[in-house]
Write a structure and sequence with these properties.
Layout lengths: L15 E5 L4 H12 L3 E6 L2 H8 L6 E5 L5 H9 L5 E6 L17 H17 L3 E8 L23 H25 L5 E5 L4 E2 L9 H13 L2 E2 H4 L1 H8 L7 E4 L9 E3 L9 H15 L10
Parallel strand pairs: 1-2, 1-4, 2-3, 4-5, 5-6, 6-9, 7-8
Antiparallel strand pairs: 9-10
Amino acid sequence: MTRWTSDQLPNLAGKTAVITGANSGLGLEAAQALGRAGAHVVLAVRNVAKGEQAVGSVPGSAEVRRLDLGDLASVREFAETWDGEIAMLINNAGVMFPPEGLTRDGFEIQFGTNHLGHFALTNLLIDHVTDRVVTLSSSLHRSVKGIRWEDPNFTGAYDPQKAYAQSKLANLLFTLELQRRLSEAGSAVRATAAHPGYAATNLQSHAGNSLLRRLMAIGNLVIAQPAQAGALPTLFAATQDIPGASYVGPDGPFELRGSPTLVGRTQAASDPEAAQRLWTLSEHLTGITFPMTEKP
């Protein structure tokens, strides 16, 4: 079978893609590929200076806008100042294995940034989206059995690896419930998810544990596929004709590397009741709700 590459992207002229965390790594690779395909690409980034350095490498039409997913006020500001259609909203930004910390709103930093920030952004922008919402998860979602409903912040017993896995499980449950709500509202927008396998990016360098950082640096050299390949599942999930709530990852052994394809997820990540419960919790924590009403 021919390997799917970004050269097979459709013509995206006249379409806008918003990519969170697009100043480096997978987000920047996706931005460059979508720019080559003709899309207008918006790099939604926390550090505008780094975004301005990166945007010059994006072919065609591109711009930088400030967005701090760890600050709900910043998320609201980004959405309130948005005007126009968004063909693809790509929830790419993420924090991985940092030292214990909280977002500006008091949430565990990985759950707050990776899930709640994107939950808020998507709901605030969904009326502008015309085609796809893609949320990045990870195969590490398999390492937890469920959401810590009573204490998603890991209060007093912080484990950065489990907290990261919980946030990636939340990304899949969010996608599942978002697709259900879109379908009930009669929307043609599709919610999909993707994971890059093991891709060499700077994400691994932010781990709080120095030994873990060294091990992942070795893994980047020996095991990982390049970031350009790691971005392919995102691009596939954003542009190909696949069902809503699909999950895309590499087709190689253990989904570490390879060509993008539809992949499986754990039972915990496929639980519609857990997805609805997480949605209710997320609405409570962020104060932001789904704006669409069910179609009569």
